[in-house]
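Hey,

Quick one before I head out. I ran the complex with P71 overnight. Inputs first:
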Amino acid sequence: MADKNERSWAEPYKIKMVEPVRMISREEREKAIKEAGYNTFLLRSRDVYIDLLTDSGTSAMSDRQWAGMMMGDEAYAGSDNFYHLEEAIQKYYGYEHVVPTHQGRGAEHMISQLMIDEGDFVPGNMYFTTTKLHQELAGGTFVDVIIDEAHDPENEHPFKANVDLNKLEDLIKDKGADKIPYVSIATSVNMAGGQPISLGNLKKVRKLTNKYDIPIIHDMTRVAENAYFIKQREEGYEDTPIKEIVKEICSLTDGATMSAKKDALVNIGGFLALNDEELFRKAQNMVVVYEGLHTYGGMAGRDMEALAIGITESVDEDHIRARVGQVQYLGENLLDMGVPVVRPIGSHGVFLNAKKILPHLSQDELPAQTLAAELYLDAGIRSMERGVVSAGRNPETGKHNYPELELVRLTIPRRVYTQAHMDVVAESVDAVYQQREDITGLAFDYEPEYLRFFQSRFKKLK
Ligand code: P71
C-alpha cells in the first residue's frame, strides 16, 4: 500500500540466504490432503508450496539476530541474554518485570492460574483459542465485549477491535467487580481478522476499569502492527513514531502476555510482563514449575538474545510499513478480483469470508475448513481455518459454538515471501473462487478434546 503522498514501499532489506520451495503435482496434493484428513495442520510442510498457515514462528530472522544467536550464554542461571531481553522489554514496552516463557500460551497459563478463580468472568475484545482455553481451565468464563462491528466481515470500521464500553460496564454491574479478575485486551485482534484497537478506546477502557479497580492484561502478540494502524488512522498520531505508540498502548495496561513468535520476529519464545511486584513474585515462582528457571523460562540463551534484537527491529518504521504493506497488497489484489474478504484488510493476514464464498454449505458442513482444503488442492497453498472448527464446543452443553465469522486465514510470515508469491496466491484464490459452486463440504471424522482444530480429521461429503 502506498502511503498517502508517498511512493510505494519496498522491503527494507535484501536477501542473503534462500530456502527452496517446490510445488508437487495435483495428484500428489490430492493424496496429501486426504492423508491429512483435510486438515491443513496435518499436512507435511514439504508438501506445501507457499505456507500461509500462520505468521507464528515463521519469520525470517535478520543477520543481526543470527549474530545474536552466536552470543548465546547458555548458563542455567542468570544468562546475560535474559538481562538483554529484560532491558529490551523495559525500554520498548515499559513493563517493569519480565518472566520468560517458551511461547505465548505458557504466559497465558500462568496469568490465568494466578488471577482467575472458579466462577470468575473474563471480559475481552474477542476470544483467542489458547487464551480462552486457559481462562476456562482456571475456572473462568470468557465474555466477549468487542464492538458488534467486529463480527461483521464487511463493516469498514477502522478500529474493529475496540471495546463496547456499555457491554463491559453492564457485565461489571451484573457480575460484580470482584468476579472480574482482569479485562483481557488484545492488540491487532487475531480472530477479528487482524483488526486494531484505537488508543482513544483503550483510554476509555482504562478509565472505566480504574473506576472499578480492575486490572487490564494486554495480549501484546501483535502490538506493533496495531500501532501501525493507529499511526495510519487515528487522529493526532500521524507523526508519532511507532515506538512511542507501542509504549503508550502498554502504559495503559497493567501487564501483558506475549507470543514473541509474531511481532517480535523469532521462531520461538514468549513472556509474561507485569508491573505488580507481588504478582510478579508469584509468577516467578510458578514459572519454575511449568517452564524453567525464571531467567530462561523454556528458552535457550540464544533464543532470548534473538528476541531482544527482534523486539528492537519490530518497532522500526520501515519494517512495519513493509510488513503490513505486503498484507495490504495481497488483500487489495483479492478485493479487485471481487473475492469476499474481511474488511478492512488486517495486519497479519487476509481473511477469506468462507460463508460468502460457499453460501451453499451450512456451518455444519464446515465451509472454512473446506475452503482451506480446496486452496491447498489448487496450488499447494496452505491456509488456516478460523470458523466453527476453531470455535470448538461449549464446555457446558457440548454443542458446537457457531461463530459469526467463518474465515480462512491467509497469514503472511514476516520477511519471508515476495510480491510475486503474493500474486501467485491471489491467482489461486481466484481460481478456487471461480469454481466455488462445485465445492462440497466436510464432516468430522475424529475430534480431540482440546483445541480441536489442530488435530481433527475430516471426511468429504458428496
Ligand atoms: C496464530 C497463533 C498460533 C496458533 C495458536 C492457536 C491456534 C492456531 C495457531 C497464537 C497466539 C495469538 C494470540 C493473539 C496468543 C497466542 C498463543 N497464534 N495470543 O495466530 O495469535 O501464542 O502460539 O506462542 O503459544 O497462528 P503461542
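Residues 54, 56, 103-105, 128-131, 186, 190, 219, 221, 259, 261, 270 surround P71 (CB under 6 Å).

Talk tomorrow,
K.
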